[in-house]
């Protein structure tokens, strides 16, 4: 049975015109005439039986139906383009895994270890895309994700990687000439926060048997990498998983203000849709990642 799908030329013309909100700019981008774009859009509207654009004094504007359709068409064309480039790059050989990853974990922990996987499995390409917040697998191209939280997601399988131990760090200049803080010193310093964890400092203080006034006040940053950079530049004291700032601590640009470490209830997981569990490349990556995580977490007691 013949598929009810418009021509690729019509979809490409529509996607470009929708993105630019201009037939003229779409024509320039696709190296065709404006009249050719008009014909393709007209043919698409006739095929769908729906108006996608309306004319205004400033040019063309997407209708509500056009806006909805444009989002979907853009997503599908992006997928086709990505798959095409992947096949061209591989020449028909090898495999690719698309991973969504929490950014700082990827930069500080995963990427330094990833060359060993590439060396062991040169036929598998790993593509990393940052995702700081939860998402739906069926709305992304991801085969798997590295997620931090207290459990997995519905409809997924997961592999435990490690828990996180939170340490309080700052620039050494911030507390000089001291090298540590006493309990009475905290009220004089700005606390830096990770924006999705408003109670992190309170939980950390509680684990030390302390209460500090204003423990939820202070600047907020979305990523731990931002938090670490702010602390490095003397903006305050940050609460960060140790394994994300080991390099900064080793170089002395950050110092741990007290020796206390708080084992957070949050953990890092590799998660993937249940239907991907038998993917051969994913199974190899999962086994490698489990081994890497175990080798790291056991000496650090992050199990």
TrEMBL record:
Pfam families named among the record's database cross-references: HTH_1, LysR_substrate
CDD domains according to UniProt: PBP2_GcdR_like
Highest taxon, organism lineage: Bacteria
GO molecular function, one term: DNA-binding transcription factor activity
Domain HTH lysR-type, first and last residues per copy: 6-63
Protein name: LysR family transcriptional regulator
GO biological process: DNA-templated transcription
InterPro entries, sorted: LysR-type_TF_proteobact-type, LysR_HTH_N, LysR_subst-bd, WH-like_DNA-bd_sf, WH_DNA-bd_sf
Entries under PROSITE patterns matching the protein: HTH_LYSR
The entry's keywords: DNA-binding, Transcription, Transcription regulation
Family under the similarity heading: Belongs to the LysR transcriptional regulatory family.
Signal peptide residues on this chain, from the entry's feature table: none
């Amino acid at each position: 049975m013949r598929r009810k799908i418009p021509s690729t030329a019509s979809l490409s013309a529509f996607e470009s015109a929708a993105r630019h909100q201009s037939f003229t700019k779409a024509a320039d981008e696709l190296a065709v005439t404006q009249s050719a774009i008009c014909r393709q859009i007209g043919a698409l509207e006739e095929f769908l039986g729906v108006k996608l654009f309306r004319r205004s004094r400033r040019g063309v504007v997407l209708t509500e139906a056009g806006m909805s359709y444009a989002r979907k068409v853009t997503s599908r064309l992006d997928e086709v383009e990505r798959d095409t480039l992947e096949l061209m790059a591989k020449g028909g050989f090898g495999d690719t895994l698309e991973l969504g990853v929490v950014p700082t974990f990827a930069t500080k922990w995963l990427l330094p270890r990833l060359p060993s996987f590439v060396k062991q499995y040169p036929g598998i390409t790993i593509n990393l895309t940052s995702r700081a917040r939860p998402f739906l697998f069926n709305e992304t191209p991801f085969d798997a994700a590295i997620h931090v939280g207290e459990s997995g997601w519905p409809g997924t399988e997961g592999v435990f990687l490690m828990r996180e131990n939170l340490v309080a760090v700052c620039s050494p200049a911030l507390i000089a000439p001291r090298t540590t803080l006493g309990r009475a010193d905290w009220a004089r310093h700005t606390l830096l926060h990770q924006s999705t964890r408003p109670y992190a400092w309170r939980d950390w203080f509680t684990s030390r048997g302390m209460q500090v006034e204003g423990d939820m006040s202070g600047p907020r940053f979305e990523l731990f990498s931002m938090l670490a950079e702010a602390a490095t530049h003397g903006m305050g004291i940050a609460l960060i998983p140790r394994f994300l700032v080991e390099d900064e601590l080793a170089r002395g640009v950050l110092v741990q203000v007290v020796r206390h470490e708080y084992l957070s209830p949050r953990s890092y997981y590799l998660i993937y849709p249940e239907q991907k569990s038998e993917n051969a490349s994913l199974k190899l990556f999962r086994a490698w990642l489990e081994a890497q995580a175990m080798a790291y977490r056991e000496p650090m007691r992050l199990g």
